[in-house]
Structure formats: structure tokens, C-alpha cells
Write a structure and sequence with these properties.
Blueprint (H helix, E strand, L loop, with lengths): L5 H38 L5 E15 L4 E14 L4 E14 L2 E8 L3 E3 L3 E14 L4 H13 L1 E16 L2 E2 L3 E12 L14 E2 L1 E3 L1
Antiparallel strand pairs: 1-2, 1-10, 2-6, 3-4, 3-5, 3-7, 7-8, 7-9, 9-11
């Protein structure tokens, strides 16, 4: 009667070992997936909401012979946390404002605070200064038209760094951006505006 060869026994042992490991990996993956589903159903995480409630444009003048744009734009934001169990830490927000597809200003939006569940928090961003902007003939014409209409359209993009907190556990840093398309009436100090700014909801992207 033929005896089992050593290499056959070794092969069967290896197959059995890898089969056990594979089943263990599948079981762990299933358990982790189940835990994730349960936590998701309990926590029900939702993205925060961001909107611009007020916008004041007291200076936006372009000098064609020097190509210098003078600007003063103040935006009042509102961030809303719709979650029932998650708190949000806003660590840093950097804002960029563009006109006719060209960025003309950047600023840091003061934040660094904890926002509790089901609450809203105000923030403000000030874009003020001057910058060299080379507009072509069509862009100058569009600028003059917007100035005569009394409304300028700006694209404001905010880059944020934040963390979520569940109980005593704080999740790692999360980064994303916020996009706001704003039609802002133009007026100087003491001048009554014909147009009123309409509060605008922004797009939040993680």
C-alpha cells in the first residue's frame, strides 16, 4: 500500500491554512461592515450647510490706465450643523473671490471653534485692498455694464479644514471646499442701494 508523500501532506496543510485565513478575513470584513452600517444608522451623518446671509460691496473700481482694481467686499456667512449627534470643529477656512473668472482677493475667515449639533454659527470674511488686473476690451465693457446696473457677480470659493466629534471621539481632519455664486449690489457708504442682496445657499464639497 502506497504511503502519502511528504510533499502531498505539506500541500494539504498549506491549503487548509490559507482556507482558514481567507475565511477569517471574510468574517472580519463582514463584522466591520455590519458595525459601520449600525453606526451609520445610529449617527445618521449629514453634511453641514453653508450660506451667505449678507454681502456689502462699498468699493469696486477699476482704473484702465493703471489696470488697478480697488475693492472692499464684506460677506457674512452662516454655517449650520444639521446633525443630531455630531459636533463640528472648524479649524481653518481660506476664502478666494473671483470676478469674470479671475481671482482678485484672498482672505482667512476667522473660525476655530466647536459647533454643537443642531446649531448655527455666524462667520465673516473681508476682501479688501487693491490688485493689478489686466482686463481686455470685452471685460472692461462688462465691468462698465455691471457698474451701471449696480450689481456685480462674484464667485467665492472657501477651502476648509474641519473635524467631526462623536461623544468623546474626534475624527481625523477633513478637507473640502465651498462654492458660492453671488450677485452683490454695489454702493458706497451712505448711498441707498436700489437692489438688495438675496441670501444665497452655497455648495459644500468634501
Amino acid at each position: 500500500m502506497a504511503q502519502p508523500q511528504p510533499h502531498n501532506r505539506c500541500r494539504r496543510c498549506c491549503c487548509c491554512f490559507f482556507s482558514v485565513i481567507w475565511k477569517l478575513i471574510i468574517a472580519i470584513a463582514f463584522i466591520l461592515f455590519l458595525i459601520f452600517i449600525i453606526l451609520f444608522c445610529i449617527v445618521q451623518p449629514r453634511s453641514f450647510k453653508f450660506s451667505v446671509k449678507e454681502a456689502k460691496l462699498t468699493q469696486f473700481n477699476y482704473t484702465t490706465n493703471t489696470n488697478i482694481l480697488h475693492y472692499n467686499l464684506v460677506l457674512n456667512f452662516t454655517a449650520h450643523n444639521p446633525n443630531k449627534k455630531l459636533s463640528i470643529y472648524y479649524d481653518a477656512i481660506e476664502g478666494h473671490a473671483s470676478y469674470q473668472g479671475t481671482r482678485f482677493a484672498s482672505t482667512d475667515v476667522p473660525c476655530s471653534f466647536r459647533q454643537y449639533p443642531k446649531s448655527s454659527s455666524p462667520m465673516s470674511g473681508v476682501f479688501s485692498g487693491q490688485r493689478v488686473m489686466v482686463f481686455d476690451h470685452d471685460q472692461v465693457s462688462d465691468f462698465e455694464r455691471d457698474k451701471n446696473d449696480g450689481v456685480f457677480h462674484f464667485d467665492v470659493k472657501l477651502y476648509f479644514t474641519m473635524r467631526f466629534r462623536l461623544g468623546d471621539y474626534i475624527f481625523p481632519y477633513t478637507k473640502g471646499n465651498i462654492k458660492c455664486g453671488l450677485d452683490v449690489p454695489f454702493g458706497s457708504n451712505g448711498t441707498k442701494l436700489i437692489n438688495a442682496f438675496e441670501p444665497t445657499t452655497c455648495e459644500v464639497n468634501f
